[in-house]
Design brief:
Distance between the termini: 63 Å
Shape: globular
Largest sheet: 3 strands, mixed
Order of helices and strands: HHHHHHHHHEEEHHHHHHHHHHHH
CATH class of the largest domain: Mainly Alpha
Low-confidence stretches: none
Length: about 500
Amino acid sequence: MEQKLERLRFLLGQAADLAASQALLDWDQQTYMPVGGAEDRSDQISTLARLLHETVTSPEVGALLEDLKPWAESLHPDSNDARLIRVARRNYDKLTHVPARWVAESAQASSLGHAAWEHARANNDFKHFEPFLQRIINLRQEYAGFFAPYDHIYDPLLDDFEPGLKTREVQQIFSTLRSEQVKLIAAISEKPQVDDSFLSQEYPDQAQWDFGVQVISQLGLDWQHARQDRSAHPFTTDFGIGDVRITTRIDAQRFDSAFFSSVHECGHALYQQGIHSALRRTPLAAGASMAVHESQSRLWENLVGRSLDFWTHFYPLLQQRFPAQLANVSLTAFYKGINRVEPSLIRVESDEATYNLHIMLRLELEIALMEGSLAVQDLPQAWNARMHEYLGITPPTDSLGVLQDVHWSASLIGYFPTYALGNLISVQLWECAEKDIPDLGDRIRQGDFAPLREWLRHRIHQHGAKFEPQELVEKVTGSRIDPHPYLEYLRNKYGAIYGL
């Protein structure tokens, strides 16, 4: 059996190499590729996607998994080998439902769609993006059909990002969140608004970049195995445990935009860098799910990066970099300003109290698109209507509305719910970390992030994708994904800031 396991590892390693090559081409397209390269790049990515699919769904892989199944059942269920065979089997069973032809078409549609989205966003021209998005929606509907019968057409898409999770579970969680967060926002709106005008000044581009690099270096990002670049929409990707790439975008008139994007993406990168080396070049060398991945980025961005403890250490350093902008702004005023609650147009720049409403809006639109109850051509109007209903504001342009996110152009339908789920998990993990590290607040105030980083590495990162998301959350916290700790966190935090 050892020989068969090694053969399986060899084939899965080849698949990992193909996936990394595809990711590298995609990263280049979003950072450095000239605009005119979109058509050639779509063909290249399409070819790699087809070869990757053919590799992981080959009859030889299927035969090896079948032969190894009895042996794997004799191993400890949490051993690396047992989990590798289990996850590889799950991936094989799912991917064999999908024709290689569809994989190539979808990869090409996503590559072309991204180029069209960038043009449409820059020129406020949804009509330019519409036919590309229509093709993507058609392909995702076809994809769901490969897994019929299902409880809901959205289930197969959600499962790609949250293995084992069903649409009805997410809708139930969001139902609890929606009513409570609306109540909180209403209570805050009755209180005097905090001032954040100091954030909207001229903050020189390079100084913003340098401060962000200084902070994420101190958080523990290993620059020997990572780099940061710029892109239209911040993201993280990797080409293996030893090569992680993050991006940010800088608004010279708004300090917090790039800073919190960098910290957020750093959280993703720390997760990837923390995966145990024994899982390298296997399907286990990834996050447990996108919600667990988002729990890491949101934990570092919000629970750490927007905390008073964090800025007790870093604010004097920030004032030294931007004396003209911040010399007369107190630490308390700065802390309140970066946590100001106000309905806003842009998801990635929204506050913690309103953020999940942005996600619920997108989930509902995705479900409607998949069900066919919403036409792509009507998407901008539906977006604006829900923005007005949920947040009381209407985007003045599609670039600030329906075109703001990259996800649909990349065929990442089913992804958005993971952001809100990640928020919930982040607080569940934080509560456990505070119990295990009694002086956590003191350490953060001293600029010492090693205890928290190593706690996360031990409890979450090193396991990679060995465990399904709900399983991992329950192993660490004793509970499945639960919205109530997050709601209590919001009430406590904003109750103190706004005097509720």
